[in-house]
Amino acid sequence: MPESTESARYESMPNDLEPLWMPFTANRQFKNAPRMLVAAEGMHYTTADNRQILDATSGLWCVNCGHARKEITEAVSAQVGRLEYGPGFQMGHPASFEFAARLAALAPGDLDHVFFTNSGSESADTALKIALAYHNISGNASRTRLIGREKGYHGVGFGGIAVGGIANNRKYFGSAFPGVDHLPHTHSLEHNAFTKGQPEWGGHLADDLERLVALHDASTIAAVIVEPMAGSAGVILPPKGYLKRLREICDTHGILLIFDEVITGFGRLGDSFAAERFGVLPDIMTLAKGLTNAAVPMGAVLVRKHIYDAFMNGPDNAIELFHGYTYSGHPVACAAGHAALDIYLNDGLFERAAELESYWIDAAFSLKDHAHVIDIRAMGLVGAVELEPIEGKPTARAFDAFLKCYERGVLIRTTGDIIALSPPLIVEKNQIDQIFDTIGGVLKEAA
Ligand SMILES: Cc1ncc(COP(=O)(O)O)c(C=O)c1O
After folding, report:
1. Is the Cβ atom of 264 under 6 angstroms away from ligand 1?
2. 3-class secondary structure, 38
3. Domain segments of the chain as ranges
4. Measured from the CA of 264, which atom of ligand 1 is nearest?
5. Splitting the chain (447 residues) into consecutive groups of 10 residues, what average pLDDT does each group show?
6. Following CA atoms 329, 334, 340, 345 in sequence, which dihedral angle do they give, to the nearest 10 degrees?
7. Rounded to the nearest 10 degrees, how much is the dihedral formed by the CA atoms of 203, 209, 211, 214?
């Protein structure tokens, strides 16, 4: 392809936007006024009209090391040239075993076996299937019920939406999962508005699991899945004691506890994983996003030793788990993952959110007195500014702020009327100031 055609394909505004059905997007609004990104480096995107946009969202909570890291680019291109693909069923390649070993060493406790997927949605579905199969092969085949939580997000597969708790992600898609129940969410403006870090109120909501056990009986429940911090519903931090209590109740009743760490994994909360930050060990952990710094799609499910061991029975030549993806452990994704992990460790990025936490929280709380701000939540390098919805026009206030911030050079994310922020972990203090000054300016004008 001539160079000019190639650069046109990747760097300028396309002639026809119509054929692409964009995910989780207001397609008609976007196509009328497109926001087109053509390049990225460090903390910034470059747009098709050659503007620099400060990324306050790590793409979609995933580019934790910052954009276009040379180490990842080089590792990926070397691997494409060396072994671009190898089947993962009944065959192997070194990078996937090495990467699994490094993840197992990094993960807390005995979360020491790794199943690779290609996304957070696949990780959630894989984790649920492993939980069901584990009970099945352990002589507890009646344990088929899955418990999620209101406002939970576990991707868009059927398993994920069944245990998920966001109405719009569920209501159009039938009701294929009767064997599911939900814990109450922990979001409360009444009790917790403007709390810095973890709220005091709400730990008792974990006890609702006892109610579900009383209703369904423990012998029918396979697993509970929660995000340690609910990200997509708008950064809802776990109340103090909540996760520990869930762990205790699961232990009492032989229920597996799954932490969906697709967002919280890889440094977001000031430690490698939320399980470390909150001192609670799940039985299964799901990962994606920051796993490869999003340079190549990849997800992973980590399980504790006793779960893996339970499957390693029967004849040696029998397949132990009838599950997997063509691209599980893809060599190029593993190369990206190795390079991302090197960056996290060499640059101390897992500690960085903890170092910047108090600066970040103070900056977020500088918006406290702006009109229509009804809550601010922040911890590590993640935060939310919740806005009062305009009557009769839910989501409009936050979406308007999103568009105006983008015009002013800052990419934020909104969910409902909540602005959610999660910058790359390399963010500098002056960039934190820019993020909140820009949002503050936009809110002031709109008031
Ligand atoms: C907690 C959680 N689980 C799962 C997913 C789904 O990940 P993906 O979009 O890679 O399928 C997400 C995505 O935001 C997430 O936040």
Report:
1. no
2. strand
3. 3-65+348-446, 72-346
4. 1
5. 71 93 97 97 97 98 98 98 98 98 98 98 98 98 98 97 95 85 98 98 98 98 98 98 98 99 98 98 99 98 98 95 98 98 98 98 98 98 98 97 98 98 98 98 93
6. 90
7. -150
Domain 72-346 top-level CATH class: alpha beta
Instruction: Report residue 127 as tokens.
Output: 């984790």
Q: Specify the ligand 1 atom closest to the Cα of 263.
A: 16
Which atom of ligand 1 is nearest to 152's Cα?
1
Ligand 1 contact via 298 beta carbon (within 6 Å): no
Place of tokens 């430690």: 271
Nearest CA to ligand 1 atom 8: 120
**Which residue, among 287, 282, 334, 284, has the nearest Cα to 311 in the 3D structure?**
284
Taking the CA atoms of 205, 206, 210 and 215 in sequence, report the sign of the dihedral they define. positive
- Establish whether residue 422 lines the binding site of ligand 1, counting it when its CB lies within 6 angstroms of any ligand atom: no
What the block records as the tokens of 258 is 């799954």
CA of 123 to the centre of ligand 1 (A): 9
Class of domain 3-65+348-446: alpha beta
Whole-angstrom distance, CA of residue 312 vs CA of residue 328: 20
Closest residue by CA, ligand 1 atom 13: 155
**If you measure from the C-alpha of residue 3 to the centroid of ligand 1, how many angstroms do you get, rounded to a whole number?**
36
User: How many whole angstroms from 155 Cα to the centroid of ligand 1?
Assistant: 4
Residue 166: HSE in the Cβ half-sphere, 13 Å Cα cutoff: 16
Same fold flag, 3-65+348-446 and 72-346: no
Between the CA of 154 and the centroid of ligand 1 the distance, in Å, is 6
Does residue 415 line the site of ligand 1, with CB under 6 A?
Answer: no
Beta strands in 218-367 (DSSP E): 221-226, 256-260, 284-287, 299-304
C-alpha 46 – ligand 1 centre gap (Å) = 25
E-only strand ranges, 277-372: 284-287, 299-304
Single-letter code of the amino acid located at 297: P
Strands (E), 294-396: 299-304, 373-379, 382-387
Q: Which strands sit side by side in the sheet containing 413-415, from one edge to the other?
A: 373-379, 382-387, 418-421, 413-415
pLDDT in tens, 38-81: 999 999 999 999 999 999 999 999 999 999 999 999 999 999 99
